[in-house]
Design a protein that fits this description.
The chain has 4 helices and no strands. It has helices at 2-10, 18-22, 28-47, 53-82.
Amino acid sequence: MALRNLYKEIKGMKVKEVPAHLKPMLSIDYAKNAIRKGLDNYHAKYIETSSVDPLIHVCFGGMIFSYLVALPEERRHLEHKQHGGH
């Protein structure tokens, strides 16, 4: 969604105008404000409404994180097994 909005903004610009338009978006302050705005929106949408969705987000996020952490070791085991290891 954000990339679509960015594309719509720069679609009508000339190539020389694009860097000047994108440069302020690549600053630390812009990133901090974007994250703060996202967290505020999340808080307003889920936390203040006493929704159960944040619990589901934590559960699925933890599951995905643990899978990604264990993935390299599982791939090593699979490669070892395919090469005829015991």
